[in-house]
Design goal:
The protein has about 950 residues and is of the alpha+beta class. It folds into 4 domains: about 210 residues, Cytochrome Bc1 Complex, Chain A, domain 1 (2-Layer Sandwich), CATH 3.30.830.10; about 170 residues, Cytochrome Bc1 Complex, Chain A, domain 1; about 210 residues, Cytochrome Bc1 Complex, Chain A, domain 1, CATH 3.30.830.10; about 210 residues, Cytochrome Bc1 Complex, Chain A, domain 1. It has 32 helices and 23 strands. Strand 4 and strand 5 form a beta hairpin. About 55% of the residues are buried. The N terminus is likely disordered. It holds the Pfam family Peptidase_M16. It comes from Eilatimonas milleporae. Keywords: Hydrolase, Protease, Signal.
Amino acid sequence: MKIKGLLVAASMLPMVAACDGYAPGGTATGDRAITDQPAPGLDMAVEIPFESFTLDNGLRVVVHEDRKAPVVAVSVWYHVGSKDEPEGKTGFAHLFEHLMFNGTENYDDEFFKPFEEVGATGMNGTTWFDRTNYFATVPTPALDMALWMESDRMGHLLGAVSQSKLDEQRGVVQNEKRQGDNQPFGTVQYRQLEGLFPPGHPYRHSTIGSMADLDAASLEDVKEWFRTYYGAANAVLVLAGDIDGATARPLVEKYFGDIAAGPALRRHKAWVPVKTTNTVEEMFDRVPNARLYRNWAAAPRTERDAHMLRLAADVLGGGKTSRLYQALVYERQLASEVSVQLQPFELASNFEIQIDLKDGADAGEVEAIVDDVMADFLRDGPTPDEVSRAKTVIIAGVVRGLEEVGGFGGKAVALAQGALYAGDPGFYGTVLDWLNAAGTGDVTRAARTWLEPGHYQLSVRPYPEYTTAEAGADRSRLPAVGALPELSFPAVSEATLANGMTVVLATRVTVPVVNVALQFDAGYAADQGRSLGTSSFTLAMLDEGTATRSALDISAETDRLGASLSTGSNLDMSQVRLSALKPNLAPSLDLMADVVRNPAFDTVEIDRLKQRWMAQIAREKAQPVQLALRTLPPLLYGEGHAYAIPYTGSGTEASIGALGRDDLAGFHRDWLRPDNATVYVVGDITMDEALPLLETAFGDWQAPAGPVPAKNIADVALPPAPRVIIMDKPGSPQSLILAGHLLPPTGAADALELDTANDILGGEFTARVNMNLREDKGWAYGAYTINFDARGQRMWLVYAPVQTDRTRDSIRELLSEFNSYLGQGLLGGRPASAEELSRMVQTKTNSLPGQFETSGAVLGALLSGARFDRPYDYPAMLKGRYDALALDAVRGAANAHIRPGALTWLIVGDRSRIEKEIRDLDLGTVEIWDQNGVPIE
């Protein structure tokens, strides 16, 4: 898997919820009458036109044409996952997925390289219980290359798989497992699966597997797994984007037609364990709060009842208006978070209730309330309004997700899932029809059926005869890639409202959705002189009630409109964002304006949010990365600087506890004002359409007296010597190595040179730091260097979560990489090379068309541009700026700004195991802190 960015820590670990406390679910079904009332759905057409065909070797192919951008999503789904692992080989499906990125018989190199060169986006591979998939979105001229690569690893892999590659990726996966287990609640999944599924069930073990089984995986296991499951007849290929069926078929036949079908496979089609009694279990772990899970095995994902249960989940715990949220968070204030969801799987889905208890809450009282709410729901069912709102929320989410052709959840995913699980690429439409037609009785019947015992079924069908075509592709070299397209960024226009507010608009006609953002020059830095966390807390309170709408009114109205309303801040800016369906734009803007202009800051709601906020701070302190982001900035910027705050923006328990209504109203008055705001609009709309609606919503909004406050983001000198802090986390299986110092602002003249220098050193998957610690040494799941964004000096962060026994060695390797990069190693070091620069420029420029495919990405570019005083067409300028980069300038930026001798090191881990070896490194004076950031020694 390819993972990049700061919060990469445990991104792909398989997490499935089950029963920490599997308690009674209401009364028996019996002969209770069901009142079946209609519930209007969201009357919107959702279409993904497609063509499909099957090669003679059994490969199923689905093609969707979408010409909005010159890119094609290539998605290959194999019908094999962790459920197919025999006893003693758990984790093998996921381990094999990693091996698929390590070269083939005809291309024995890192799989990512040719894709990075053409600017592929959304590239990754994932493993789950029922399937393994590989996907990337490439510029249209690179389609031949992508098909060659995918077909080569489908048909020509085994000759390139070696013991050394197996050992290397085994280490990477084991570090991934350690990293996931190191998170709060990270080991809960193992108990959940064993509690929900009986011995012998394919879902009883986790996808990540056990350390012992991973150690036991042999080279012959790898080859047998490939021969059994990676045949053409066990796969679905989806091509979506700038492609049509007539073009696709000869290409697919050329590259895939000579690949063997693979053996006939016997597989379960459904297996829902029958559970007639409740099981209650308890465990203890290092977590920031108590949490209650309750799970039921339910209908498989292709059955109608599974989707009725999605509606039931939304009614019970889908948001603020849901029954369990109101009962536990609003009314009784026993919980900080409640969620209910259906996790759909092929053999048996998982209906899950998850509740984060507040400190001191009575778990027995929480369980009793859940019992009562479930009993009422199973007895009376949902109301028509609840079902209608749930439909709107779910379908609106589907509409937004289908803007993208590939990635983790775009059109290619919808088509592939239908083909793989239901034998019908258009199965998504069947699901939407089921949801739209559902009445209250349908939801009630499904809940009564599946929140009590389930069933098991096995279907056996004759396996078709397959033949193999003659070889059609030249396997001696990669196909030539044609001229790659340049970014076509939409035109941007400006207008001014009656009160002087600037409107910035870009028309992007893809789906009937309009995205609106109101951006204020505030952010976390505006907390200066106030309680830490004021900015984030104030923004969070905006949708917790206005002068005329309660928090529940706002949530309900948002659901009815099919809108999405969010508020938040980054370091420099605060934003209120609206994603609205175009037919509902006017009332959605009315709601947005009310939230922005007339927040009530009700003391009851403030107290409710404080309880949840405190729980969030506690969770941050339990997460190693977030704990470091809370701790490092104050050390780097120093007292009095606006950035010397937790980078999470959440503040501290003391600062949040001291916040009152007057503090929030004061922040709103000083910062969230029309003379400090700009309106950004991107989507299916023109300026002539947008202006009258924006005038109605914001045109009469007047600024208060007095100027907007100032923020101190003055430059800070780098320290003369390193500083080393060990933050003790007893029992931690990993050490999280972080180090940082300050760089010039994101908007500095040489920012592009410095960003490129960082990308080569540690900013990309194939950069030096990750290739060393992950691919070469196998000590980390991922290691990076990150340039944070900021208007003032920004933070350069070294990030390396490593196995505990390699903490000292990893720090040595990091310093060696840094010094060599700056020309300070043996024989003059190894500064950035022309080849590395060329590869990086190719990656960055060729990815631009795919990077700005969605209207949300365009909106993000406009907001970021305003933050750093960039022109609206800055994305369109990037190719020229990258092409003009000189190697000497990139090296010069690195040498001018990267200073290993000025780093502040923060190492989070088990002090008893790492302190001595860190002191032996003699980096500088070593300090010992506890997890609250309080010095111990």
